[in-house]
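Final report, Chapter 2: Outcomes

The project's central promise was a pipeline that accepts a single protein chain and returns its three-dimensional structure in a standardized token representation, suitable for archiving and comparison. That pipeline is now operational. To close this chapter, we reproduce one record exactly as it appears in the project archive, with the input sequence first and the structure output second.
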Amino acid sequence: MTTEAHQSAEAKDVKLYTMRDLRERAADVIAEINKSGVPGVITHHGRLIALITPLMGKHLEGRLIAEALRSSGEKDAALLGKEKVLSTQEVALRLGVKLPETEEELE
């Protein structure tokens, strides 16, 4: 991909990374994607091969847990918050789970 095409793609709310970027600094690439909130497109020999979507801070875990409980027939309205979508922290608190407070605790 030419530099001009690369810059054009970045201007449209995506950031391009090469397979080499991903191979050599995967953790940094993922951190950049999550920090920017902009999807990262992975290229290999100039071809688009993958998309990494930022999820950090989206409270996805809480939504998934709430949906799983609803799907399984769980009727505990106190846990589900009566149709309210709970944040990850709220669900963890109600389930008695301690979440890491810093990125260092995740490792």
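Archive annotation: Helices lie at 3-10, 19-36, 60-71, 77-80, 88-95, 103-106.
This record, like all others produced under the grant, will remain available to the consortium after the project formally closes.
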